[in-house]
Predict the 3D structure of the following.
Amino acid sequence: MSGDIQHDRREAEPGRGERLADWADGRLGIYSLAKTQMRKIFPDHWSFMFGEICLYSFLILILTGVYLTLFFEPSGAEVVYHGTYTPLKGLQVTRAFASTVDISMEVRGGLLIRQIHHWAALVFLAAMLVHMMRVFFTGAFRKPREVNWVFGWTLLMLGLLTGLTGYSLPDDMLSGTGVRFAQGAILSVPVIGTYLSFFLFGGEFPGDDIIPRLFSVHVLLLPGIMLGLVVAHLILVFYHKHTQFRGAGKTEKNVVGMPFMPVYMAKAGGFFFLVFGALTVLAAVATINPVWAIGPYRPDLVSTGAQPDWYLGFSEGLIRTMPSWEINAWGHTLQLGVFIPFALFPLILAFMLLHPFIEAWITGDKREHHTAERPRNNPSRTGIGVAWLSLYAILLIGGGNDLWATRFHLSINLITWCVRIGVFVVPFLAYVITKRFCQGLQRADWERTVHGRETGRIKLLPHGEYVEVHEPLSPAQLHTLTAHEQPRPFELGPKVDSNGVVRTFSRSDRLRARLARAMYGPGTYIPKPTAEEYRQLNGGDHH
């Protein structure tokens, strides 16, 4: 009898893992937190993967960056190269350049890790831009997600700076030319430009201090801030959840999707390894930034075709396309041909930061929005986004005008003047064409809603007329095409009130009314069919 009791006690004793879980839950409350949060429902859509690519690329950057930090020597001190790469032997190089070549040639797996790091940086920034454009075009930045939009925009800006600082560390001819370009832009700042340059470089360019300073900023300051913003961004995404596209059963007050555990976690884990694998294959087959072939940086030399990575190409395009403009006054020279583009660089990006707040001010919409819009249903916003991207693209062409000229045997002056004109013309045309294109898609949706889907079957009517048979859409399809809102523009109202008193309007109110009329007034969109129109057009045998 006692043996049976001891056997039952052994079976009743919890295992080591269960005891550990109980110990942690008693001190951290993990079980209760997981019970309430891990089963949260999230909507699902293929476009959400761009945000996941951003996250996974960032994690890969941290992992590969830690490995590279173990071997990289951030020093501008000059040494004579005696490594294994024969063409460089006997050359005077900086320790930063020598250690970069050693990582590529002598460290086991160093070249692969270094190229994964570089490719991950490019993919990280590209995915961030596409992810932000997805949020922009679908209106997913509206209340209550404005703060998360600011976090995402800040991450993009910090990503640009992190890419610039990391791109400059190897001290090869390409990165050194980029640092020289940045120093020239800093010198163009009126009054304090020289002082800023001396402060950053520790004296005359290039100096010995810039590489250690860039290294500290690149591996400590900026990644630390970005990691904090990524955590805050994910917490807000988890709290607000993704916006869901309108459809059957999907409203502003519910969420239709899959639970976070185990569905989302399983998909996320698999997708992480897919991204890591794709970047590894890309790094293994496509060489990027071969510093041993480019050679060490020398301040007295510059190579043809020296281009920054794509995400900073538009900043160089601003300066290359700006006409030379100098003002000499009181013994000082103002390089406005450099300073104006240098100042426009953050302003172009800041426009996207402020757009959610500008749009909310114009519409006066203070409601919460948890459903995403189809881009065609807001032609003005979609046109603005495409115009911004077209400006970015035309400046990117300007930043590589020498490569376009040599590759396509064109005049570099012709390309420069085309870009100068295109900066003003192309965004305007892109806005107009995109807006008209969205209106055409809205009209096509109107036709599909009231007439149904074309079946390809031809029917002979009793009076001899041939018509194509249309099949009515399902209620779910009709809901998708007609559930969107079409906001009415803000109006000032009558100039004289009911008591005959002349009303006064502030400048901001008049500006708001003009912008609202331009974005949402008559002719800016195709009104969706009403229920009465649908009944009238489908009441008889019209098809």
In short: Residues 3 and 503 are 96 Å apart (CA to CA).
